[in-house]
């Protein structure tokens, strides 16, 4: 039967270290006292010591070489510092990361990630914030779906400000994240450009800092995006979209907008606001009017809407007529249009005699 000799052990942090039963030189005690530690035992081999930190009162294992040449870092104090750092940065500490100087943390959204301690220090000082990669990816997917696109993945060119998207028509292209959010881009597969794509004539209301109500009239392919991302200068600025009129093409929209502004300046010259009134409050140089003529502007927009409906009807009729003409001119087809005699009833087909 084998004979096992059990050696006494020293437990630290859940680990059992075998005690190395040798004397501790007084010189080593002097090294430990100078650096804020107390030697309590020797473990493992001749090179390892157990130190008790005077600040936290907890024990650690280190080498005598480390104690002689530098100040040992207490792992318990480091762990408390990491927890305090994460608490100050409003994240949950989970442990050390897989890389040096990285910590495993849980964000406020519930997702887990790794971040550098230097970044967490800057977050604690409110110099920056932590962006969750999973939440960002989900947000990009929602923004793409709202514009009939789907997110494929990262930019193939490696630009962090771009992503690769697929349109509902099947076309794949790189789009800037900011442009996907604002809608200021066009599909390279199915779009003919802003001059041929549908557009809108809009009316917006702005309340300026001096209390003046201003009405802006213009055209845009996406009025909501223009209001939110281009015209407003502050996040909580009072601005709202009053009305939109869909125009068949951007070319028609810019022509109708110019005619509308020409009419307004001619009929109500005193209602045109000077740029100095709204400078630095609305990101435009003109096309703002006093709200005193809001009723007149809406009346002009009513007339414009009627004109647009007539324009759309005429173009649809012309397109239908052109399609019918194309079908008649196709090879192997015969025209079914009646002659003048057939329409007047004066023509008799061959083989039919009057009785």
From TrEMBL:
It comes from the Bacteria. Residues 319-355 are annotated as: Disordered. Residues 323-333 have a biased composition (Basic and acidic residues). Residues 334-355 have a biased composition (Basic residues). This is GIY-YIG nuclease family protein. It comes from Paracoccus albicereus.
């Amino acid at each position: 039967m084998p004979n096992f000799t059990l050696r006494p052990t020293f437990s630290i942090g859940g680990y059992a270290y075998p005690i190395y039963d040798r004397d501790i030189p007084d010189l080593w005690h002097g090294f430990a006292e100078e650096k804020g530690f107390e030697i309590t035992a020797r473990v493992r081999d001749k090179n390892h010591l157990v130190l008790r930190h005077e600040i936290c009162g907890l024990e650690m294992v280190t080498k005598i070489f480390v104690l002689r040449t530098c100040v040992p870092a207490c792992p318990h104090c480091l762990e408390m510092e990491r927890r305090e750092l994460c608490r100050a940065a409003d994240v949950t500490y989970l442990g050390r990361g897989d890389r040096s100087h990285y910590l495993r943390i849980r964000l406020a959204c519930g997702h887990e990630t790794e971040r550098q301690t230097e970044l967490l220090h800057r977050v604690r000082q409110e110099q920056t914030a932590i962006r969750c990669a999973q939440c960002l990816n989900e947000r990009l997917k929602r923004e793409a779906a709202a514009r009939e696109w789907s997110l494929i993945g990262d930019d193939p060119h490696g630009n962090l400000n771009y992503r690769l998207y697929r349109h509902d028509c099947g076309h794949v292209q790189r789009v800037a994240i900011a442009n996907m959010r604002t809608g200021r881009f066009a599909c390279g597969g199915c779009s003919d450009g802003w001059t041929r794509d549908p557009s809108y004539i809009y009316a917006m209301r702005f309340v300026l800092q001096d209390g003046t109500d201003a009405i802006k009239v213009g055209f845009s392919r996406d009025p909501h995006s223009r209001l939110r991302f281009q015209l407003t200068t502050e996040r909580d600025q009072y601005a709202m979209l009053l009305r939109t009129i869909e125009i068949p093409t951007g070319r028609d929209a810019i022509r109708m907008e110019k005619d509308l502004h020409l009419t307004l300046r001619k009929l109500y010259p005193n209602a045109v606001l000077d740029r100095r009134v709204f400078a630095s409050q609305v990101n435009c140089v003109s096309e703002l009017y006093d709200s005193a003529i809001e009723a007149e502007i809406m009346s002009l927009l009513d007339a414009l809407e009627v004109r647009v409906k007539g324009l759309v009807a005429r173009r649809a009729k012309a397109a239908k007529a052109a399609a019918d003409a194309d079908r008649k001119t196709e090879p192997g087809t015969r025209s079914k249009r009646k002659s003048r005699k057939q329409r007047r009833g004066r023509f008799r087909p061959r083989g039919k005699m009057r009785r």
